[in-house]
Amino acid sequence: MENTASRMKLRFDDIVVGAEIPALVQEKITTQMLVEWAAAVRDFFPVHYDQNVAEKMGFPTVIVHGPLKCALLARLMVQWIGEEGTLLELTCEHRKSNLVEETLICKGKVSDKFEEKGCGYIRAEIWVENDKGSKSAIGSSLVSLPL
Amino acid sequence: MNSQKKYTLEQLNSLIGQEIKVGYPTRIEVEKGAVKNFAEAIRYAHPLYVNEAYARSKGYRSVIAPPTFAAYDYQRGDAVRSVPLPFEWSGLHGGDEWKFIKDIQAGDVLTPTVKLADISLKEGKKGQIFLLKVEITYTNQDNEIVAIYRSTTIVMPKEGQ
What we know:
Oligomer: heterodimer
Order of helices and strands of chain B: HEHHHHEEEE
Largest sheet of chain A: 5 strands, antiparallel
CATH architecture of chain A: Roll
Shape of chain B: elongated
Helix content of chain A: 25-40%
Structural class of chain B: alpha+beta
């Protein structure tokens, strides 16, 4: 996978404002993934792994951590720009909760590109949607690529 | 509902900019194993994150951490719960904003500094809603800022106070 990605290196000149970022990140969220995330960041709020707590809080099942969605959006950007690129900024506003077993797809669209001091910069709108097309997290990102 | 106590932004504005002492943890030692766990949790075990020899071949001292790793071992909820608000409340996580300034490498020791960056007020149908932005600045052992994280919490004062 990495070899393929490095062969298809993203070049600043090829980037078109308005173009979509390939949907490189698509994950079916399992309880195991939520537990791995909880342990990785030491966030043990039980609504993300305990069905009883989730039901008491009014959710049909356990829900996905917001910062996990943010980290998946960050993964989309670094996976897209490759090792030569640099992720500089990322924002993510949480609009809706996602339930376990949903498939989350990270998407993006180039909103601006500019050159400054010998470096190429790209702004993108980014979001997380499920396989029914419902957007749950919306944000933006700034990355740089060598010219 | 009408008897619910109202708060004004003026009562809370003095909190903005204040450093928040959360008590724990004051140091984050970036360990290879923790970096690998994080990379696996986001299903992206890139060799820069999990293969030290590869990371060294790219000029790093050790593996580097995936973006947003700095929040590791930092319970965001605890930071916002340490803000001395004059009421009991329940909250929702509203959003994340990151500035990534420098790569974080295994072996780094990060110091988080927490402050309340902003408070805004919305009068909703169900009562008052405050948006609290807590800002965490992560500084490494060389006194370089590596990342700045702003987390927004939607704070709803509990009724009957």
